[in-house]
Amino acid sequence: MQRMWLVVAGLIGLATFILELAYRPAHPYSMWHTWPIFDLIFGALGCTVIVLGAKWLGHHWLQRQETYYGDDL
Protein backbone atom coordinates (compact mmCIF):
# COMPACT_ATOMS: atom_id res chain seq x y z
CA MET A 1 0.00 0.00 0.00
CA GLN A 2 2.81 2.40 0.88
CA ARG A 3 4.57 1.57 -2.37
CA MET A 4 1.44 2.52 -4.31
CA TRP A 5 1.35 5.95 -2.62
CA LEU A 6 5.00 6.51 -3.50
CA VAL A 7 4.34 5.58 -7.14
CA VAL A 8 1.33 7.93 -7.28
CA ALA A 9 3.33 10.75 -5.67
CA GLY A 10 6.17 10.17 -8.14
CA LEU A 11 3.78 10.26 -11.11
CA ILE A 12 2.22 13.48 -9.86
CA GLY A 13 5.68 14.99 -9.41
CA LEU A 14 6.70 13.92 -12.91
CA ALA A 15 3.51 15.36 -14.40
CA THR A 16 4.10 18.62 -12.53
CA PHE A 17 7.67 18.79 -13.83
CA ILE A 18 6.56 18.20 -17.43
CA LEU A 19 3.77 20.76 -17.18
CA GLU A 20 6.09 23.36 -15.68
CA LEU A 21 8.55 22.86 -18.52
CA ALA A 22 5.80 23.04 -21.14
CA TYR A 23 3.92 26.06 -19.78
CA ARG A 24 6.57 28.44 -18.49
CA PRO A 25 5.43 32.02 -18.13
CA ALA A 26 7.00 34.47 -20.56
CA HIS A 27 7.61 37.03 -17.79
CA PRO A 28 7.82 35.36 -14.38
CA TYR A 29 7.15 37.45 -11.29
CA SER A 30 10.32 36.40 -9.52
CA MET A 31 13.50 34.45 -10.16
CA TRP A 32 12.43 31.23 -8.45
CA HIS A 33 9.43 30.87 -10.75
CA THR A 34 11.90 30.12 -13.54
CA TRP A 35 13.22 27.03 -11.69
CA PRO A 36 11.43 23.81 -12.62
CA ILE A 37 9.69 21.98 -9.76
CA PHE A 38 10.15 24.90 -7.33
CA ASP A 39 6.40 25.12 -6.69
CA LEU A 40 6.17 21.36 -6.07
CA ILE A 41 9.01 21.39 -3.54
CA PHE A 42 7.79 24.58 -1.88
CA GLY A 43 4.25 23.19 -1.55
CA ALA A 44 5.42 19.82 -0.21
CA LEU A 45 7.70 21.45 2.37
CA GLY A 46 4.96 23.88 3.36
CA CYS A 47 2.47 21.06 3.93
CA THR A 48 5.03 19.08 5.91
CA VAL A 49 5.77 22.07 8.17
CA ILE A 50 2.06 22.68 8.75
CA VAL A 51 1.33 19.03 9.62
CA LEU A 52 4.35 18.59 11.89
CA GLY A 53 3.79 21.97 13.53
CA ALA A 54 0.14 21.15 14.24
CA LYS A 55 1.14 17.76 15.64
CA TRP A 56 3.75 19.34 17.91
CA LEU A 57 1.29 22.00 19.04
CA GLY A 58 -1.32 19.36 19.83
CA HIS A 59 1.05 17.25 21.89
CA HIS A 60 2.71 20.03 23.83
CA TRP A 61 -0.04 22.58 24.34
CA LEU A 62 -3.53 21.28 23.62
CA GLN A 63 -3.55 17.79 25.12
CA ARG A 64 -3.95 17.28 28.85
CA GLN A 65 -2.58 14.47 30.96
CA GLU A 66 -4.94 11.67 31.95
CA THR A 67 -4.62 12.75 35.59
CA TYR A 68 -5.72 16.30 34.84
CA TYR A 69 -8.30 16.38 37.67
CA GLY A 70 -6.14 14.52 40.16
CA ASP A 71 -5.99 10.96 41.44
CA ASP A 72 -8.52 11.34 44.27
CA LEU A 73 -11.55 10.18 42.20
What class do helices, strands and sheet pairing give? mainly alpha
Oligomer: single chain
Number of domains: 1
Low-confidence stretches: none
Question: Looking at the structure, what is the overall shape?
Answer: elongated
Whole-number average pLDDT? Answer: 85
Helix-strand topology string = HH
Proportion of helical residues: 55-70%
Count the DSSP helices.
2
Distance between the termini: 45 Å
Number of strands: 0
The major sheet is characterized as: none
What gyration radius follows from the Cα positions, in whole Å? 21 Å
Residues in β-strands, percent: under 5%
Task: Explain what this protein looks like in three dimensions.
This protein is mainly α. The chain has one domain. It is 63% helix and 0% strand. The protein has helices at residues 2-22, 38-62. The longest helix has 25 residues, at 38-62. The protein is elongated, with a radius of gyration of 21 Å.
